[in-house]
Amino acid sequence: MCGFILIVFALAAVAYMFHDIVVKGKRCKSNANLNGKTAIVTGSNTGIGKATAIELAKRGARVILACRSKQRGEAALEDVRRVTGSTQVLFMQLDLGSLKSVRNFAETFLKTESRLDILINNAGLYMQGRTEDGFGMMFGVNHLGHFLLTNLLLDRLKECGPSRIVNVSSSAHNVGNVNFDCLNTHKDLGVATSTRDALQMYCDSKLCNVLFTHELAKRLEGTKVTCYSLHPGAISTDLKRNAGSILQFSLTFVSVFFFKDAEQGSQTTLHCALQEGIEHLSGRYFSNCTVRDVFARAKDDATAKKLWELSERMSGLA
Q1: Do 111 and 153 touch, CB atoms closer than 8 A?
Q2: Dmax of the chain from CA atoms?
Q3: In a 3-state reduction of DSSP, which class is residue 116?
Q4: Residue 115 has pLDDT above 80, yes or no
Q5: If residue 67 lies in a helix (H) or strand (E), which one and from where to where?
Q6: Residue 260: its pLDDT value, please?
Q7: pLDDT of res. 259
Q8: d(Cα 301, Cα 54) in Å, to the nearest integer?
């Protein structure tokens, strides 16, 4: 029995060290003060988006919480103001699944706000279905809505430079693919007939984030705007909500030791938004607050340009 107990303690110690060194990962080291700066964070009513908004507000930024749900957005607004003590935090409704909503948001923002220094395209979802405009939900929200939003706000970002655009992607982009024939035919990245198909389409949408960033950086050359894509890490979520008691306990253990919480998961986003001296890495992909190489398909010039031009047509910019 003593031997078994020792083994259990040893395994727990190893798991703790793994979590503390590997899972928690690096932290944003920038001490940047953001007084007088304005930031937009999409999908900031929960998770890493909310954690990101809190940190930006603590540093003195004027922070716009851009969220689809008015109820959840206003609840997040109260939380962020309470935690940070800042009155420079606002909620503005934005539904990335509606091109009309994206245009309305940009129009309102440009009329009411004089600056934009940081745009964090954080919102994302894993969901089947169609957007208001008939696009596949994950393509429409994870990529196309952010593509349109960024382009509509680009002139303001240039005026306020040096400024930054941060696109939250995922390591899932490594197995993504962009099927242009399917996009042209079905306005979607694939035709989902199974959970596996839907998961593949999510990965495809995350590849779109990385390709968008790659092409955007080329188009921003000569300006004072830089852009970055990133993997935030495996984030703890409410995985155990519908599980039985034994499974809930198991998932709690896995979550505690092998997943980041929202604050830890926001660190690479903050690094890309704030870290001094990374301007020459515009267009690159980051993970664990470190620039990473990507597979050839995630930095292919022809594919990135083709996706940009198709996105322009689909979003009504062309």
Answers
A1: no
A2: 72
A3: coil
A4: yes
A5: strand 62-67
A6: 81
A7: 72
A8: 36
What is residue 18's predicted lDDT score, i.e. its pLDDT? 43
Q: Could you write out the three-class secondary structure of 176-223?
A: CCCCHHHHHHHCCCCCCCCHHHHHHHHHHHHHHHHHHHHHHHHHCCCC
Judging by DSSP bridges, how do beta strands 285-287 and 290-292 pair with one another? antiparallel
* Cβ atoms within 10 Å of 36's Cβ, excluding its own: 10
pLDDT (tens digit per residue) in 79-103: 999 999 999 999 999 999 999 999 9
- Mean pLDDT of the residues in the chain: 90
Q: Can you name the residues that pair with 166 across neighbouring β-strands?
A: 120, 228
CA dist., res. 313 & res. 265, Å (int): 34
184 HSE (CA, 13 A, CB side)? 7
Radius of gyration of the chain (CA): 20
Name which of 164, 171, 167 is nearest 278 in CA terms: 164
Return the number of other C-beta atoms located less than 10 Å from residue 195's C-beta.
9
Three-state SS at 136: strand
DSSP 233-270: --B---TTTTS-HHHHHHHHHHHHHHSB-HHHHTHHHH
- Give the span between the Cα atoms of 288 and 266, in whole angstroms: 10
Average the pLDDT over 298-312 and give the result.
98
- Global pTM value: 0.88
Residue 3 has a CB neighbour count (10 Å cut-off) of 7
Active-site choice (16, 202, 228, 285):
202
**CA atoms of 274 and 163, how far apart (whole Å):** 10
Q: Is 285 among the catalytic positions? A: no
